[in-house]
């Protein structure tokens, strides 16, 4: 089985938690954070411009939530784009991209509700709107304010496409379940990841990745199989590449993430049409394949 080398593990702060890109890269979860989720959207404006929008939701160990946004002028990741932390619970902010695109950010999370006490991303009673060159490029959330913005700009912001998503979390158990669509307009899938060290710390451990309740990757001797990949065909015919890298988590590498380096990493990526082989971490992803990156850290 061919091994993969996956991603760096530099320390990051709350703003740097937004530094994930459409290729799924990014560093370790800052020690002050309990969880962070970064979603990357690609918006095509009527002017012909393409805008990459990164939205990061965070939750601190004390339970405080945070929000940051970042922008690029093309659908290609850039480590040089500025990340803007939105400190207030509601407000508006005017920005400009490196190429001069005028961007307005409008948000209100004062009464936001969440699926659980540990989730960083709200599920209701909030909105986040991004206006680029007087055009509604992205609208998240629901409620009267969101509907008013949609009517104001004559658009629902639904033209933005989800390119990638990175979920980072810290907990006693290395297990996480999330939902995503591997292709715009496709079916929603449940992705579950799990890693265990075995009884008493002396076992051989286990790594599992399941999609819609079906195991698509499993390793029972983690000390030998801490990195790897599998291809899987889902029930709806979608072909995905499943990758894992739990080296730092298994061997206790220091340097961030509570003494576990980059943590236990799991990656699932949909293959783009006519893409007939496994995508590798050192190659740019083909357009059209959604990328999910989950990083789990022990407390």
From TrEMBL:
It holds the Pfam family DUF868. InterPro entries: DUF868_pln. This is DUF868 domain-containing protein.
């Amino acid at each position: 089985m061919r091994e993969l080398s996956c991603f760096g593990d530099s320390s990051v702060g709350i703003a740097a938690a937004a530094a994930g890109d459409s290729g799924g890269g990014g560093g370790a979860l800052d020690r002050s954070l309990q969880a962070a989720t970064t979603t990357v959207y690609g918006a095509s404006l009527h002017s012909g411009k393409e805008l990459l929008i990164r939205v990061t939701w965070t939750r601190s160990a004390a339970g405080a939530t945070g929000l940051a946004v970042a922008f690029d002028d093309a659908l290609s990741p850039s480590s040089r784009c500025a990340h803007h932390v939105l400190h207030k619970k509601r407000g508006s902010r005017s920005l400009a991209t490196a190429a001069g695109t005028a961007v307005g950010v409008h948000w209100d999370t004062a009464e936001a509700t969440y699926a659980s006490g540990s989730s960083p991303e709200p599920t209701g009673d909030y909105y986040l709107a991004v206006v680029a060159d007087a055009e509604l490029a992205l609208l998240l959330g629901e409620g009267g304010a969101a509907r008013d913005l949609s009517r104001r700009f004559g658009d629902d912001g639904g033209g933005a496409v989800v390119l990638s998503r990175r979920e980072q979390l810290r907990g006693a158990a290395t297990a996480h379940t999330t939902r995503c669509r591997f292709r715009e307009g496709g079916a929603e899938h449940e992705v579950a990841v799990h890693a265990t060290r075995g009884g008493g710390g002396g076992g051989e451990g286990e790594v599992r990745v399941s999609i819609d309740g079906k195991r698509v990757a499993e390793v029972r001797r983690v000390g030998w199989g801490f990195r790897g990949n599998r291809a899987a065909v889902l029930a709806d015919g979608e072909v995905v590449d499943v990758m894992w890298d739990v080296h730092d988590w298994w061997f206790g590498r220091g340097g961030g993430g509570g003494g576990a380096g980059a943590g236990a990493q799991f990656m699932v990526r949909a293959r783009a049409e006519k893409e007939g082989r496994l995508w590798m971490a050192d190659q740019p992803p083909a357009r059209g394949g959604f990328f999910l990156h989950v990083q789990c850290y022990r407390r």
